[in-house]
Structure formats: C-alpha cells, structure tokens
Specification:
Blueprint (H helix, E strand, L loop, with lengths): L2 H10 L2 E8 L17 E5 L4 E4 L7 E2 L10 E6 L8 E6 L6 E3 L2 E3 L4 E3 L3 E6 L2 E8 L6 E8 L4 H23 L4 E3 L5 E3 L21
Parallel strand pairs: 1-12, 3-4
Antiparallel strand pairs: 1-11, 2-12, 3-5, 5-6, 6-9, 7-8, 7-10, 10-11, 13-14
C-alpha cells in the first residue's frame, strides 16, 4: 500500500468531535464569526484543541469579551492496545468553573470527556458528541450552532423517558388475572386475603 492509500484510509476513519454551540444572544452578536461553521476541520492529535478569545493561543476563537483568553482545551489520547481516540477536557479559565454534565471543573482541573457531554460556562451551552474513529495522528472538528439550548432537549428527553416508565409501572400494577379449571377468569382484589400470593399463570386446583 502506498502513502496516498494509507492517508486516504486514515481520512475515512478520523475521530470527529462535533461541537454544537448555543448562547441566548447569538442571533444579535457575532460570537461565532471566526469559527468554521458547518465544515469539518482536521486537527493534529498531539496539539491541544483550545477554545477561547485569544486568536494566538487558541485554535478556535469566540468573539466575546466575556470569554476568557483561554477558556477550555481538549486533549486527545489513546489507551494501551487500542486504536480508539479518547479525550480529556480542561478548564483554562480563572474566572469561574466549567461544568461537564453534572461535574464542575475549577481552574486547570480536567476530566475524561464522555462520548456525549453538555458543557456550560457563562451563558454558553455546548453539546459535545464524539464520533469514533481509528486514525491515531489526527482527528476532525465540526462546529454547529443550535437554535435552542441543548439542556432543554435533554430535559425533554428525560421527561419523556419518565412518562414512559410511569406508564409501564401502571400497566404492571394491574390486578393479576387467574385461570380456573373451567377456563373462566377471576380478578383478585388486593384486599382479598383468602388467597396467598399467586403467580399470574398459576392454575387453581380442581375438585375431584
């Protein structure tokens, strides 16, 4: 296999970090004017991916004076005997904490980045989704702007899941139907203590 074929194969298998941004004032402010929205950019894996206000220190820039010069960074890494590329996230801002799902990171604190994570700082909400790949030297980054806060979608999903579980529990709590010898069915009341605990498929004894 020649070099061009090797590079082409790696291109097809690049891990991708999808970075979906939301800010309540994004429609009237040019926060994302320096970001390559809607296109995938290749990033060298041994170079930290920094996001912040400083155009020299950060690979990707937010045009917002309230953002720190260096707000956060992603670091790629591999575990032994695995081609899967994983990431850690570090808070580079001294102004405040950075939240990753339910965890809060102080200045210079870092943690493993989940495959799907909701990141918050200031009024920003950023949804990160990792698409798995096998290339070791590079990964891709794709920026997108969300019309609604990702936390709202997450809350809606949890609410729908809770409603589904409630319906299932209600269905499971219905009184059991018992089968008799004559193939008729009776419904036991929870207050009826004349029968002990019965399985729903248990057959009542017949009189001989």
């Amino acid at each position: 296999m020649n070099v061009s074929q090797t590079m082409e194969t790696e291109e097809d298998l690049l891990t991708c970090l999808q970075i979906k941004l939301y800010h309540p004032q994004q429609t009237c402010k040019g926060f994302y004017g320096r970001l390559p929205l809607g296109t995938r950019r290749r990033h060298t894996a041994d170079d930290p991916l920094r996001l912040g206000r400083d155009t020299e220190a950060c690979a990707y820039v937010l045009l917002d004076p309230r953002v720190s010069r260096k707000q956060l960074a992603f670091y790629a890494y591999h575990i032994p005997q695995s081609s899967e590329m994983l990431f850690t996230i570090q808070n580079l801002s001294q102004r405040g904490k950075l939240s990753v799902n339910t965890s809060a990171l102080g200045y210079l604190e870092r943690m493993d980045l989940p495959d799907k994570a909701l990141i918050r700082f200031g009024e920003y909400e950023i949804l990160i989704i990792r698409e798995s790949g096998e290339a070791k030297a590079n990964f891709e980054v794709e920026f997108e702007v969300l019309a609604v806060p990702p936390s709202r979608e997450t809350s809606l999903c949890k609410e729908q899941t809770s409603m589904s579980l409630c319906k299932e529990q209600t269905s499971m709590s219905l009184p059991p139907v018992m089968e008799t010898c004559s193939d008729s069915r009776i419904i036991l009341s929870p207050k009826d203590s004349s029968f002990g605990p019965q399985e729903s498929d248990e057959t009542l004894p017949c009189d001989s």
